[in-house]
Recover the amino acids of this structure.
């Protein structure tokens, strides 16, 4: 099973040359129960559908938001994680509302749900600039250096960034919207999708999912 992921801690990322994260651990457990090998393939997030359809990967599994638009080209698993789109900014900033982004440089990960949420909001036309990054990790470096004023991204990443560097980062009070993560499959791979859904149900019910979630988040966040 070839799993496509990008640099998106704490769900899937590379640390000291090792691929790790919550989604990575769940994928490993699924592969173990399928009695197959699992391989993790780094992809550019904006090329995820192309990588899937070209069969360079078998699944997209790394904080992939379920949307109606994406359902036209991706077959989704059942939702396995709740999430929201938030504003990540510096502790020195007074940004606490979406409207406060007006006139500012705001970073997003290219082709992410953060970009989608920002473009659909009325504040988008009032930005100084929306700056697109290949990975959200690159965006945080730009934020820290002052190249941008804020980042619109998934709450789970934003909270991870704050946990790693609370002296520099904070999350604004107002959020964009709620969303769910799912695993992305080729449209024709219904049997594989159904089998993996069944295994994740088992992982959730037997406590394995809770153990993995506690390891990464300190609480059981696996949605089933």
């Amino acid at each position: 099973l070839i799993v496509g992921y990008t640099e998106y801690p704490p769900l899937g990322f590379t640390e000291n040359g090792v691929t790790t994260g919550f989604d990575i651990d769940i994928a490993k457990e699924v592969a173990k129960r399928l009695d197959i090998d699992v391989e993790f393939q780094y992809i550019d997030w904006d090329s995820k559908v192309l990588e899937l359809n070209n069969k360079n990967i078998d699944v997209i599994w790394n904080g992939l938001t379920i949307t109606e638009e994406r359902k036209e080209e991706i077959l989704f698993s059942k939702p396995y994680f709740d999430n929201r789109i938030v504003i990540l900014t510096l502790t020195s900033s007074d940004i606490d509302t979406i409207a406060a982004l007006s006139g500012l440089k705001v970073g997003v990960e290219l082709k992410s749900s953060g970009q989608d949420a920002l473009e659909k909001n009325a504040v988008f036309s009032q930005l100084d600039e929306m700056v697109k990054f290949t990975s959200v990790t690159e965006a945080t470096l730009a934020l820290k250096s002052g190249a941008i004023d804020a980042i619109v991204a998934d709450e789970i990443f934003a909270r991870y960034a704050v946990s790693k560097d609370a002296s520099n980062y904070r999350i604004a009070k107002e959020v964009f919207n709620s969303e769910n993560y799912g695993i992305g499959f080729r449209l024709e791979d219904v049997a594989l999708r159904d089998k993996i859904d069944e295994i994740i149900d088992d992982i959730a019910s037997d406590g394995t999912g809770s153990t993995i979630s506690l390891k990464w988040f300190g609480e059981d966040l696996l949605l089933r």
Observations:
- The chain has a mean pLDDT of 95.
- The two ends are 23 Å apart (CA to CA).
